[in-house]
Amino acid sequence: MNDVPADLSRAEISVADIPSLLLRTIPESADPIAETYGHPAETAVLTERLWVRLYRLLAECFTTPVLMPELKRASPDTELLGRCWDFVETIVAHPSEHVSGAAYFEVLEQLLNAEGLAEAAWPYMKDRTRARTVQMLNFYDVRLSGINRR
Questions:
Q1: What is the mean pLDDT of residues 87-92?
Q2: What gap in Å lies between CA 134 and CA 11, rounded to an integer?
Q3: Helix (H, G, I), strand (E, B), or coil: what is residue 95?
Q4: Which pTM value belongs to this model?
């Protein structure tokens, strides 16, 4: 499971491979994938067409059970958050609007759901994810010190 490119943001990945990339990059998503799809995660990402409902996959198997709880922890696992934001960087910059849209709505917009989430995520984000987050914050007229407010 450690065959993930060191720089995911430069990896070219097909839309259909996003579920496998999630599982390889974030093995902590295995249990939520298995619970959501009723198959072992390794089987589900290969046999189910999870990429068709990518919004559901991200929401139910990544953002809600893995990313958000880690961002809320007093002492988060920085290695896990680094891997999470590497994965997000890959999908937020993906040329498919289906993939980049899922990243926007099911990951980035979720940072607006509780105070302090965007600030907690910011140090782990990569360049394209940061740029997209600033655009989102500006669109919603949300000003956060150290991010889009000086």
A1: 96
A2: 24
A3: coil
A4: 0.89
